[in-house]
Amino acid sequence: MLSYILRRLLSLVPTLLIIITVAFFMMRLAPGGPFDQERALPPAIEQNVLAAYGLDKPLWEQYLNYVGGLLQGDFGPSFAVRDFSVAELLAAGFPASLQIGGFAILLAILIGVSLGTVAALRQNSRVDYLVMASAMTGIAIPNFVMAPLLTLIFGVQLSWLPVAGWGDGAFQYKILPIVALALPQVAYIARLTRGSMVEVLGANFVRTARAKGLREKLVVMRHALKGAMLPVVSYLGPATAAVITGSVVIETIFDIPGIGRYFVNGALNRDYTLVMGVMIFYAVIIMVLNLIVDVLYGLLDPKVRH
Known about the structure:
globular, 12 helices
């Protein structure tokens, strides 16, 4: 297992290098620049600004300097957010995104697996149809519709929860964004769990466990659920990365200071280093979570060999 993990970690290096290279040159090929404004700068001042950030050098030299900085842990300065480095902005925004995304994915796992299991155990019943209909509704309704709806009901009409802001991290400010971010994931996980559980409940090892006289609760929890989690675990790798790195819509609607908002602002302002930093950060999280998923596969299914 340890040798497998080390091989996978080494394989991440060329993959990450390809992502950095493609993103770097695509950003530079896009029209416009970080210092393009409605009112053009005098040529001398513009040349000094470009020289200060190393943008007056050939593209290949900029690329080598950027990669060299990354090897030292330096993501470079932000072009749009003055007096801040990209690393400082990521460090400031990631805790908020991690809290919202982490709680959202945990809530989605708890509710989605429970609903999917109940639906599978009552296959083709009213409960099954109700759970699957709710799941399809959750998938069909996007975040930018669900979030304002939750805000209108629980924030404006009932006045139970604050509708926006971070409030120094107080938990009541996190409830609505967590629920809005978790609902689509609940729907996906419930459908995956239900389909996988239906298949596993008909497997030979489950019938053998029942034939031995085990209680149905033990059969489901100890045998069936463990096998049914494989598709869910596969889905959770990229889903967790996407949720934790922040939903741009949710962070914008609820005014959350996460990294998703930095990514949008960086793209609009042609802030090359900020966009690159968020993309690299996002790629690393996806790769690490996929590695964790592969390791969990071996723990859930002894037939899987690394």
